[in-house]
Specification:
Distance between the termini: 37 Å
Low-confidence stretches: none
Strand order of the largest sheet: 2-1-6-5-4-3
Number of domains: 1
Radius of gyration: 13 Å
Order of helices and strands: HHEEHEEEE
Helix content: 25-40%
Number of helices: 3
Structural class: alpha+beta
CATH class: Alpha Beta
Mean pLDDT: 95
Largest sheet: 6 strands, mixed
Number of strands: 6
Strand content: 35-45%
Length: 116
C-alpha cells in the first residue's frame, strides 16, 4: 500500500514524463476509473485525457517541473501546495491542489493557480 505522498509524487512526475505510453501506464495505476481533474484553464475525465493535457503542458512550458512544498491530509482528502519551476529551480508559478482519494488512488484533483 502506497502513502498519499508516494502516490502524489508519481502523479507530480507524470507532468514531466515525455513518453506518452509510460505516462499513461503510471497514471492508470494511481487514478480511479472515474478520475476527474479541474483547473482554471481545463477540465478532464480519466487518465487518457489527463495524459493528453500533460503533453500540452509540456509543449507550452518546456523544461518546467513541479516541486511539492507541503501536503496536509486527512479523511481521504489532501491539500497540496506546489511550485512550478524551470531548469534553474526558479519559481515560475505557485499553486495548490485539493485532492480526493480512495483505495490508494487519486479520484479528484482541483488545481488552484493564477489563470494563464
Amino acid at each position: 500500500m502506497k502513502t498519499i505522498n508516494e502516490i502524489w509524487d508519481i502523479y507530480r512526475t507524470c507532468w514531466n514524463e515525455t513518453n506518452s505510453v509510460q505516462r499513461a501506464e503510471k497514471l492508470q495505476k494511481i487514478l480511479t476509473d472515474d478520475f476527474e481533474y479541474k483547473d482554471p484553464n481545463f477540465e478532464v475525465v480519466g487518465y487518457a485525457q489527463l495524459s493528453d493535457y500533460m503533453k500540452q503542458f509540456q509543449e507550452q512550458f518546456e523544461d518546467a517541473s513541479f516541486i511539492t512544498t507541503y501536503i496536509n491530509t486527512h479523511h481521504n482528502r489532501c491539500l497540496v501546495n506546489w511550485n512550478m519551476v524551470n531548469d534553474n529551480n526558479e519559481v515560475l508559478s505557485s499553486g495548490s491542489s485539493f485532492v480526493l482519494y480512495e483505495n490508494d488512488k487519486l479520484k479528484q484533483i482541483t488545481g488552484f493557480f493564477k489563470e494563464s
